[in-house]
Amino acid sequence: MAFDKAFKEQADLMINVMGYMPWDECFALKGGTALNLFYTDMPRLSVDIDLVYLPLNSREEALTEMKSALVRYKEKFTKLGLQVQLTQVSEDNLAGKLIVTRGRAAIKIEPNTILRGTFYPVETKPLSNEAAEYFQQELDVTCMNFNELMAGKLVAMLDRQHPRDIFDMMHFLKSGHDLSSITDIFVVYLIQANRPFSELLNPNLKNISQVFKSNFEGMTREKVSIDELTACRGEIIKQLPELLKENHKQLLVSIMEGSPKWGNLPFENISDYPGVQWKLLNIRKMSADRVKEEIRSVEDVFGV
Questions:
Q1: Nearest to 49 by CA among 97, 6, 119
Q2: What is the SS3 assignment for 164?
Q3: Is the model's pTM score more than 0.85?
Q4: At 70, phi and psi to the nearest 5?
Q5: Taking the domains of the chain in order of start, what are their residue ranges?
Q6: Which residues have C-beta within 8 Å of that of residue 274, sequence separation ≥ 6?
Q7: Cβ distance 255 to 270 under 8 Å?
Q8: pLDDT band at 278 (very low <50, low <70, confident <90, very high)
């Protein structure tokens, strides 16, 4: 494997740190680390510990528990001889995050304060055979469900268009999975995204060459070119409007109109989730003209 040395050191530190985290408490692992080190045999390295907070309690209770957990982690990791910084709370991160450093390697541990709770049950997963052998470590971690994880990954790919997210979606498809298997849960995460629905379903394409070289090259087990990633990105964006069904389109429009048709998706209590409530609040703050414009844009994406 031709992994970059810096990425290897970060991943090794991250796995070591996860082994000291109590996975029977309030968090589950999500994102690229859960995907590449626990659900698959390490097609690429990952260097961040992204956490989903599981209970659907009040915002105040959630933030208090998240902050307390990060303080406990900081104390534990410091006793292990690691350098640990707990960042100050900001508008973008109301619970803070940890930066853990060992030598030249630094990793981030961060809970998402808005997207709380999961729609599928979480799973306890062992470190994949490939990762366990490569790093000579073993551990079990509570992970977000695979399909839910991939739905969030797809939204991230459409939003950030980071090579890591594109690669993860490319590997998902090359492994025999189909986008149609995650469309319902994808729509749930689309609803909770920062940006308007139409901007994610039909995004302006970003130039990824700089971030490819600085934050991706050397992270994959097998070499991947920018052309492969951009081709995959384009194909996914092209397919999405065809994969989403009439019930999905109706739901998105009904949300913009202020009368969500939650029954169009096979999930219970969707409106109880903080990320959904946050999006509905932001839509209510929009002007009537802006709402009409977004509805037209969504309908244009679907060819209505």
A1: 97
A2: helix
A3: yes
A4: -65, -35
A5: 5-144, 148-301
A6: 56, 59, 62, 114, 115, 116, 117
A7: no
A8: very high
